[in-house]
Amino acid sequence: MKKPFIYITRKLPDDIVSDLRDEFYVEMWESEDVPVPREILLEKVKEANGLLTMLSDQINSEVFQHAPSLKIVANLAVGYDNIDIKSANKFKVAVCNTPDVLTDTTADLTFGLLLATARRLTEASEFVKSGEWTSWSPMLLAGTDVHHKTIGIFGMGKIGEAVAKRAKGFEMEIIYHNRSRKQNVEKDVGARYVEFEELLTHSDFLVCLAPLSPETKETFKKEQFAKMKKSSFFINAARGPIVNENDLYVALKNGLIKGAGLDVFDQEPINRDHQLLTLKNVVALPHIGSATVETRTKMMSVCVENVKRVLSDQKPITIVNEEWLTN
């Protein structure tokens, strides 16, 4: 009997993949860093029963139309804005993600990015490494205090909750805006729900952690930056398209806000000549929110388990399109 075929769109560690090879025929794209070319992906899905994908892979209706035997797309991420869920439902394909296992890791990175931006840590590190540190002065690379300031969280999901807990340790005032109120967060860390307008005007650090959707796309534009404090910082560890990058650049360049910490961008990887990278008051990271060895290994294991379960006619650990369960 022919083994089910699984295609993995990026090279993963052998010890992760070996768990699949006993039951399935597995192929992987050869590179860890370079995305699988579109034409190769479309060719491989013609025979694939399962796909293990990265956030950079656009799994749209074209892919599903080329994949008559496909039963599951396991996405190595919490977000799944790279996958056309309507098409997945139409073709009766399960879409799985990796929530929960990366919550604390991403919250650590988000708060670290906030600290690095406020205290100018990357700028200071480069200052030392480039040999510019020749003396000490009272205001040398002076940054901004984080403790006792106000953090505003846009998107109070599980990662937002974890960031709020870290902010409590810095004795920050915690405000948030979300589609719905989170009574447990208000009780546990003293967070206060506010309307979006107050989030903009009151936050010293505005942290974006909302999922990307048609409703959240370009939530932050010139009008929003103009309402923020001139002393405030914008931190984005969610998705790049939630922000209009040109408007953010103008706001930073003209002093409408003081600085920005960005782990995500509209187009990734970002071009080295991008205008945001010319600004000293921008800390830029290469989308590494969940990038620890421990967490990425757990994420891969969840993907593998989801693939095994769906191809064995079992319910997966995590499912994005609940509609699939009733198909």
UniProtKB/TrEMBL annotation:
Keywords: Oxidoreductase. Residues 111-289 form the D-isomer specific 2-hydroxyacid dehydrogenase NAD-binding domain. Residues 7-321 form the D-isomer specific 2-hydroxyacid dehydrogenase catalytic domain. The keyword Oxidoreductase applies. InterPro entries: D-isomer_2-hydroxyacid_DH, D-isomer_2_OHA_DH_cat_dom, D-isomer_DH_CS, D-isomer_DH_CS1, D-isomer_DH_NAD-bd, NAD(P)-bd_dom_sf. Its EC number is 1.1.1.26. One of its GO terms (molecular function) is glyoxylate reductase (NADH) activity. Belongs to the D-isomer specific 2-hydroxyacid dehydrogenase family. PANTHER family: 2-HYDROXYACID DEHYDROGENASE-RELATED, GLYOXYLATE_HYDROXYPYRUVATE REDUCTASE B. This is Glyoxylate reductase. It comes from Rossellomorea pakistanensis.
